[in-house]
Specification:
260 residues; five-stranded mixed beta sheet; five-stranded parallel beta sheet; 10 strands
């Protein structure tokens, strides 16, 4: 049978961080699942927290942090690829249905909290260590119960690729947008007609053909076409090239909607 083990070392006492409960919970489960999948049927995941001080680091500002660390005894990630794993669509998994969204979305959320993510080797044996650094909040305490900014704009995503559709939906919802999402053109057009007074932006992929959003719809609804950077096909609408980072997606959407 399988021999899986989870060890804990929780040493970050009385520390306050900036985070919202639901996203923190999702991040914790995501990282634990990634570590579990890394070693297959037998291995160990060490989950630990520490209070640390950063004083000499070219990427992370000086200060006191809480480190949440996941260390596994899996196959590890080659050093030359460790920075790639936080990019959208990157994955080392080969299982059906796996995608590279997890760490890219975690990186985006952590960045919004003013935190940092590090990918490294398991120093004691083969495997990977993923560290999340949260800046300690010493003087003030703010309870964040959900998305920090709620918006009135609604966005429709029409995309057949589950990975891209989920990435866009997760990132934009985290920014406070209300998101509709579908993988079928006909359903997308129906949503536009049913919610014509609510939808402000339609984002659609390269495999969505014959999208009938002509006439009055185009007078008010903004359109964003997702195309691979290698594609040469022309588009009648503004284009965002895939793969893109969550930051680029958010910036493009805000620019189209003329919001900050």
């Amino acid at each position: 049978g399988s021999e899986n083990k989870v060890d804990y070392s929780l040493l970050a006492n009385d520390a306050i961080i900036k985070a919202d409960q639901q996203n923190f919970y999702n991040i914790f489960l995501n990282l634990a699942q990634n570590s579990r999948e890394a070693f297959g049927d037998a291995g160990t995941v060490m989950i630990s927290t520490h209070n640390i001080r950063i004083d000499m680091d070219i990427e992370i500002p000086f200060g006191d942090y809480v480190e949440l660390r996941f260390t596994d005894t899996g196959s590890g990630i080659p050093k030359e690829r460790q920075k790639d794993v936080i990019q959208p669509f990157y994955t080392t998994k080969v299982k059906k249905g796996s995608n590279g969204l997890g760490l890219s979305i975690i990186h985006s959320i952590i960045s919004q909290w003013g935190g940092y993510i590090r990918i490294g080797d398991n120093k004691s044996e083969q495997g990977t260590t993923i560290s999340i650094l949260f800046k300690q909040e010493r003087d003030t305490f703010e309870l964040i119960t959900g998305t920090q900014k709620f918006r009135t704009e609604s966005i429709l995503i029409i995309e057949k690729n589950n990975t891209i559709r989920q990435l866009c939906s997760d990132v934009l919802q985290q920014q406070g947008f209300h998101v509709f999402a579908t993988n079928r053109e006909a359903h997308g057009v129906r949503l536009i007609k049913e919610h014509t007074d609510k939808i402000h932006l339609v984002i659609y992929g390269k495999d969505i053909l014959g999208l009938d959003i002509s006439g009055d719809y185009l007078q008010r609804i903004k359109i964003l076409h997702m195309l691979p950077v290698t594609e040469t096909m022309s588009s009648d609408h503004q284009v965002i090239n895939t793969p893109f980072t969550p930051t680029v997606l958010v910036a493009t959407v805000k620019s189209l909607l003329q919001i900050t």
